[in-house]
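## tool: complex_structure
## caller: assistant
## args:
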Amino acid sequence: MSDKGEAMGDARVPLSEAPTGRTLRVEAVQGGHGLVMRLAGLGLTVGSDVRSLINNGRGPVLIVVRHTRLALGRGLASRIMVSQPED
Amino acid sequence: MTRTVAPESNRIAGPAVPTSASDPALQTRALTVALAGNPNSGKTSIFNALTGANQRVGNWPGVTVERKEGFRAATEGGAHRTPSRARIVDLPGTYSLTAASPDERIARDFILHGDSDLVIAVVDAANLERNLYLVLQLIEIGKPLVIALNMVDIAEALGISIEVEKLSQLLGVPVAPTCANVGKGIAELWDAAMQAARDPWEPRRLSYGRQVDEAIEHVRERVAAEPELVRTHPATWMAVSLLCGDASHMPDSREADPRMQGVLSAARSAARHLQDVTGDTAEAAVIHGRYGAIAGLMREVATLPEDTRETPSDRADRVLLHRIWGMPILLAAVALTFHLTFTLGDIPSRWIEMGAAALGDYVATLMPAGMVRSLIVDGIIGGVGGVLVFLPQILILFAVIAILEDSGYMARAAFLMDRTMHRMRLHGKAFIPMVMGFGCNVPAIMATRTLESHRDRLVTIMVAPLMTCSARLPVYALIAGALFGVYAGLAIASMYALGVLLAAIIARVFRRHVLSGEEDPFVMELPPYHRPTFRGVMIHTWERGSLFLQKAGTVILAGAALMWFLSAFPWGVEVGGPESYAGRLGRMTVPVLRPLGFGPNEGVALISGFVAKEIVVSTLGVIYGLGAEADTAALGKAIAAGPMTPLSGYAFMAFVLIYSPCLATIAAIKRETGSWKWALGAMGYLTALAWFVAFVIYQGGRLLGL
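## result:
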């Protein structure tokens, strides 16, 4: 996972492909009005910082955003684009 | 608790906002308080603490499936006041008020259109930022609002400190810190609420940034100019909704009205303008504005520890959600659940069985033999007693499920099962209703309310009856015990598996042909683990178990009486014999059921099972002349000696598994889908499927020479 993280730089990758354990920034949510509003209620918005906790390469992804642990289905996680901010 | 006091004229318009005790409306009806908040915010605990009502503490998002109400004295009881009661309505837990799920719609509509005078927003202090998002929407609605800043003890333990006074000042809303699970701060919360209900209320608007504020104000002015709109909707709320492209609150009948069209086009042009200046969609700008306001508040009032620390729950999840160990642990938990259910439940079940038999014998000594005695002893005590036998198992299963839910593990189970459920074309969250279905299908169908998508809900509702509920088990146990000898356990287990397999197939079929469309994305909060309380588990178990008891007391009572009538009349014939009504009905089913290997006796039993499947056993008891409360061993012997073969017996078990769910389940489907179409559809398709599967088993088996 780690070389993937180094390779990504400031490029956007889907959350489903992002490395675990690092702070990531949400760049875009590819979805309609309803999805964007629903994720907003859960704290997952464009510009927010997230960290992927569990990503087994299949099945859902566990992330933490705004102190909340969220399970995201793989399909959904692949539609959330993140980048790794420069430290 | 600082709040700006505004003159009467500044109060928002709308009939449902009487804000003063001198308001005549308040003299004639109870003050109504709506309790809103995120799932897992401890809202149910606050409700319990306020009302003293017996409710449950839950972890599963959307735990408040039914509308719950409680009462509390509305005044502090001063001598100069007439004490009155306030009604407290517990709304479903929601993350926002955009009406994405049925629960959100219920909450939003009650706050907007219900008769609530005041809203108490329950906020998880340990999760303040996310929880404030809902609070901001409540402020947009503009009803008198009080915040219960709950679980301040837990927040403190996590190193979070919150300046309560300052938060109250900045929001313009009274804030009362509480620890509802130990009852701390409840009296102060209630005092603040009563104060807010008495005083005039001026809704405060927080700034979402200049550009968003201007856009909202622009639309708000247009909305406020339409008396018909502001009569039913707060202008600010309406403006924000319209700006975000949600026109669902516009009165339907007025769609063609040029003035409404004017409001809509003003909203559209404001949204376009906002998009031009922010480079973002209007809804994204509003969301950004809300979280921007929240970030400002958080900087002012809260000190948070680093978010990158690993919490105890994270450490537990490393094991419980492990890529290799997670699944075996879940399967072990499910296996243990069923093991406990059937071993522990067996003992009290036998007591109930003996109790019902003893009661029947006792009543029989009190009355002369005849029609009435037969109805009471054979029909009612036998029929209902035969059903109550499952009560211990159902209660134990629901207690274990409640423990799993309240501890937070059930949400992890949904996480682990998401991939498997996805393959079945079901939503990950559908796992919980399906597991519950093994206890009783009625609460299973009600538990589908946590699914956001209507299509996901319908698919889950349509396949949930294929889960072998505890009422079907005694039928399996009877037939398999009579015909399969040492393989009885295997035959029974195969029925559970058959149900799950059929559910997987049927869900795919429904998804492809009936309820097609994009799948609803899976997103769910995983609350921190915590120790379930004994009281919470008991309350939850009882709430679901009582659904089963109600069924025993109503549908099954009536069904048992009806079956008694059919088998005992015309009076004087051999009970359940060929000349009774039941016998005649059974003969009528023969042409349809013969290809499945069933005779007239099985036909009658299956007809009685339309009422409730457990009745199949007591009906067989009556038919085989042993009475409704016949003990299983004797009935098993009678069946083994009868015309049923292992092959037709197995087809019979499959038929009982699949065909039309009991009346209580049908009623639940009607209630939850809102239409008879789905309820009757479930009856029809399941009965046809049952016939088909039983046909394949019986005829296939005969071809193989079984």
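## assistant note: Chain B touches chain A through 48 residues (CB under 8 Å). Residues 29 and 86 of chain B are 9 Å apart (CA to CA). Handing back to user.
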